[in-house]
Amino acid sequence: MYEEEDDDSKEEDCEIYRLTAKEDWKKVGGRTRARTVDPIPFTSDNEEFTVNISDEELERLKDDSDNIRFYKVFQWLLPKYGDKSFWKFLAARMRNYMIHIMRSDGFKPLY
Fold this sequence. Notes:
The chain is an all-alpha fold and about 110 residues long. The chain has helices at about 55-60, 70-75, 85-105. The chain has one domain (about 20-105). The radius of gyration is 27 Å and the shape is flat.
């Protein structure tokens, strides 16, 4: 069995952490569980850094409570190829590549 040896002759540069004293803790009041983060206002007016989104597209990013959902923003940011979404485009390319390596390299998928 492996036993760990203590080698006091080696000195390593490491940080030592300790528990923070209770009197140094600050309680956040109210119903919030974490600190609030104020939004950063969008201040650019030039055409290079403007957000190019229509009112209809903006409404599609919101849920039933009129909150913008981040996953919908990320989907909106993905490129589109004609009328195909990024995921359909990627799936078609992966299928084409899979068929190519099966025919040319003799690759046999397991599943």
